[in-house]
Every structure is written in C-alpha cells, then in structure tokens.
Amino acid sequence: MTSLFMKRTVAGAFVTLTCSSVFVDAQVPVREASQPPLPAASQLPVRDPEAPPQTTGTGVLRGRVTRLDNGQPLRRVLITVAGTAALIRDLPTAFTDNEGRFELTGLPAARYTLTAMKAGFVTLQYGQRRPNEPGRPIELANAARLEGVDLALPRGAAIAGRIFDQDGEPVVNAAVQVLRQRFVKGRRQLASGVGSSDLSDDRGEFRVYGLPPGTYYVSASVQDRPELTAVFVGPTLGSVSTFYPGTSSPEAAQPVTVALGQEIGGLSFAVARARRAAISGVVRTADGSPASDATLSLSQSMVFSSGMSSRGGSVSPDGSFSWPDLPPGEYNVSASVRSREEFAVARVVLDGADVRVELTPRKTDVARGRITFDGGAPPASLRPAQVRIRPVSLDPSELEVQRGTQTTRDDWTFEVGVTPGSRLLRTTTTAGWAIKSVRVGDRDVTDTPLLFNGSDIDGVEIRLTDRLTDVSGLVRDGRGRATTDATVVLFADDPGKWGPETRFVAVVRPDQGGRFSQRGLPPASYVAAALEYLEPGEETNPATLERLRQVGTRFTLADAEAKTLDVTLSSLP
To answer: How many CB atoms lie under 10 A from the CB of residue 290?
Structure first.
C-alpha cells in the first residue's frame, strides 16, 4: 500500500484529502542475476528477543531506483522487504548507492513484497501502478539471485492553500491530513491515517506534499483548544469540519485533481461555525452510589470531526462530570474503574443541544477457553506466547477496547476481557497457522459473533491448523498470455459468507511471472476473478462481489486441498 510522510505534528485544524488515481508503471521484468555483487549496502535488521529462530537463506535481490520524470538514479532510497513464509525474521534493509542500485542478501526462499521510500517522492512497492494498490510479489527460490527489481519513483504532487475564519482572519495551526476513500466494514468512508499532514502557519497557509497523482477532497476543522479557537466570536460557536470550497457537507465538496509532480495552490476557504454544546452526566456503581473513583475518556468516533484528540476527565465526589463547549460530532464517552476492572461506554451525537448520559461501569465480560490443534498435541514449532486472541467488532464506528490478557498461557488456556457488544474471536499468530474452528460447547461460532452483554463466556475452544488450503495459478490476458498487472479476488460463492472480517475473501496479486498464490482459505465453494485493478476495500463490498460472480471461475476447496487454476483477465460487468 502507498504510505506517505507526515510533515509536522498533527494538532489544531484539519485539512483532509482523499485520493484515487493511476500511476505510470516504469519498471523492467525481474531476471536472474549474473553480474558480481554490488558494493555493501546498509543492513539494518530488527531483533525480536521472543521471535523463533531466524530462517536463513542465500537468496539475493538486486535492482535500481530511478526518478520517473527523467530516469536519473536516486540515491539514499530506503529499500525494505516483507516475506510471507513462516518463521522469517530479521529481514535486511538497504539504501541505494550513488547509481541508484541496491542489493539484499541472505534471503530464504519465500514470496516477498519490496518497498522503496524517499522523502519528497511517492513511496512505492515493486509492481505497484496505482495509489493504495498492493505491490507485485516477488517469488524467490532457494539460492536464487534475481536482478532487475527496478522501480521508478514519481516526484510527489502538492496541494497548497489558506484556511481562514468567517471574518477573514487566518486560522493558525491548521492540521493537514490525507485520507483516501474506500469501502470499510460494510460501508464506503474516508479511511484515516494513510497520508501526509501539515500545519498551517501564522498566515493560515498550508502545503501538503509527496502526494500521488489523483483526485482529492479537502476538509478543514479547528481543534477544540482556546488558543486555537479565539478567532471565533461567541463562547457558544465553534468550528465544524468544512470541505473545500466552503461547505460542511462531504457530498457538496469540490474535488481537486493533481497530475504527477504537479503543485496546485490557492485552495482558500473559511472554516464554518456551529453552535457548541455540552456532554454531561453521572457515573454510578451497580448499587446506585457515586463512582467517584472512575476515570473518564472522551473521543470523537467519526473520520470528519473537529480534530479533537481523545481527552481524559475527572468525576466529582457526587459522580457527576461535564465537558462543555464541544462542537457537533459523534463521541464515545467511557468510564473505567481500574481497581475493580469495571468499564462502561456510551455513544453520543451532538448537534448543538446539550446531552446528558448515565454510565454504570461493570465487570468486563471474559471469554475463557483453550487453544487446541488439528492433529492432536501442540506443535514444538509454536509457542503459546505467539498466539494472541482478538475479539473483533463488525461495527466500524464502535469503540473497541481490549481489556485483560490477550496472550495464551503456557498450558494453552486463555482468558480475554471483552467490552460489551457482538464480537468474533480471532487469533494473531505466525504464518502457516489459521483458525480451523471456534466452538462454545456444541455450537460452532467460527463465523458467528458472540454477544457479550453482562456475562462471561466459558468453554471456548479455538482450534488451529497448519493443514491449510492452497490456491495457485496463472493470470492470463485475453490473448492467453501471462500477465502481471492484475488483481485476483478469491471469494466464497455463498453471499452469506461475505461481510466484514470474513475468512472467505482474499485479494492477491500475481508475481513477476504472472502466478498467484493464496493459502489458508477455509473449505468452501469459491469464485476466482482477475481484474486489471480493484480499489482496495472493494472486496468487502457485496455489490462488487455480486458483479464478479458473473465473470469469475468457480472452484471448490476441500480441507487442506491444493488447487491449481488459471484465471483470465476480465472487466467488471
């Protein structure tokens, strides 16, 4: 995925951008290496004291990084790789030399993703042609020496402008952030934490740089701090998220399009004002007495908000609390009593009127159970500390707070604190292992959320397996030739298996030879479809998958089955 740099610390007012666009592919095919090794490059391994033993290798990747605009070599570009095989640790990194060349050595056989990063340029993965698109994996065999892993980095584009208030005065410390639009957990929204950020100066001016070419939407808002909001008149008025050219509605926002390396300036608009309100209430124990020892937290839960970061709060002796002068938005109010391991949360929507809530912290629900293994005894290659339990919410706006231990004990039992709501139980572990089933008694709840609503759930059995399915094949174009510029979507033929956090949908890109591979899909009937491009997140959109069912290739996967099939490039009907 494309990642961009943060220019300055985010505080104050927000300017937000979302992007969709197309890159120019300026790389040559990977080929076997035949020339002598390059001069030594910086190798910066990261050590994990609890990681399993390093899997060593003798594979080599060589390449060159140039500027896309003029073909000149780029020096001091950071090159990193990520491997998909199990037990790969301490992978090397390198910097390009004066000729733009790099070399990575000591790589075990695996499928790798390679990323190039340099300030002022768009960060790219090898084979990536569009923003936010996954890179093309590189298949490296035992002792293989591959060269021609070449990338051409485009100079980043820039968008500049000025933020001012209703009286024409500059808004100081406007925070500028880049978001992208995508389908997330069942709905289209602007995903946060993906792009560059900036702060406006004393003239209210900002400049966001290092952007990929594409179309953006600009949003600005002011953080709820007295020194930043003093320009506004009246104690009951405050800023709200405002979109270029000066609307509070995302639907009415005007898009801004930039080409490769282009700079667009003059995006000036006023931050809108709206009536502020207060969130107040009381925190009580289960018997109705004041919970004066509770700790409070207030955070905004929507992507476009006033820019307020989460803040703490105190409870009065009578259990009351108040946050005055808050701008409109959606908030999460939580109360926690650490000494009794109690927690409560409420979702509040402010639209200019004061809101009062009552919170009663209670014991966090607990899921207790055991990890078991398909085939019997725990494997010697996997340690309990490597398996973590994750309660997962399917609601993208729900506040998720993990409480209690998430690590499996030495006897393979676990106890996980879970906040109220419907949760799937998932695991995080090393590659090569996947959930086979999750059961509570005689119920299979592998893909059915458990409701935590005031009572613990005991007797959970999470069974892991290393007998994984494997789907692989070749992607061909309309003339039957292998193609590398594609995205392969593998998804269950049954729409009931789609949705957020599903195990039955996967997206993979073909390697340098046009071959794709995906391990770990659960046994089921599937559809495979190959497209030139699919916007990241669209694989979670039921409407998109329904269209892909019309052009895809159907196949079935049995337990631990390896399936080979070729997929022909097609278009969405």
So the answer is: 16
Residue showing tokens 């193609």: 483
Q: Is the pLDDT of residue 3 over 50?
A: no
Kindly report the pTM of this predicted structure: 0.71
Encoded tokens for 314: 């105190």
Report residue 326 as tokens: 């808050």
Cβ proximity of 218 and 253 under 8 Å: yes
Spatial separation of the C-alpha atoms in residues 521 and 508, rounded to whole Å:
12
Distance between CA atoms of 150 and 378, rounded to whole angstroms? 43
What is the model's pLDDT at position 15? 45
Output the DSSP codes for 251-296: GGPPPEEE-TT-EEEEEEEEPPEEE-EEEEEEEB-TTS-B-TT-EE
pLDDT digits (tens, 9 = 90+) for 270-318: 987 778 889 999 999 988 999 999 999 898 754 444 445 567 888 999 9
- Comparing 232 with 136, the larger pLDDT belongs to 136
DSSP state of 212: P
Distance of CA 374 to the CA centre of its chain: 31
Q: Are strands 205-211 and 242-243 parallel, antiparallel or unpaired?
A: unpaired
Cα distances (angstroms) measured from residue 420 to each of 303, 342, 367, 423, 527: 23, 11, 12, 9, 36
Query: Which residues have C-beta within 8 Å of that of residue 479, sequence separation ≥ 6?
Result: none
CA distance from start to end of the chain: 26
Q: In this structure, are residues 90 and 104 in contact, taking their beta carbons and an 8 Å threshold?
A: no
For residue 547, give the 3-state DSSP assignment: helix
CB 82 within 8 A of CB 125: no
Q: Are 523 and 561 in contact (CB under 8 A)?
A: yes
What is the rounded CA–CA span in Å between residue 321 and residue 282?
6
222, 229 in Cβ contact below 8 A? yes
H-run or E-run covering 229: helix 226-229
Residues in the chain: 573
Q: Any idea which residue has 């300036």 for tokens?
A: 265
With residues binned 3-state (H G I as helix, E B as strand, rest as coil), the percentages for the chain, rounded to 5, are 5, 45, 50
The DSSP secondary structure of 404-460, one letter per residue, reads S--BPPTTSEEEEEE-SEEEEEEEE--TT-EEEEEEETTEE-TTSPEEESSS-EEEE
* Tokens describing residue 468: 């994984």
227's enclosing H/E stretch is helix 226-229
- 564 forms beta bridges with 472
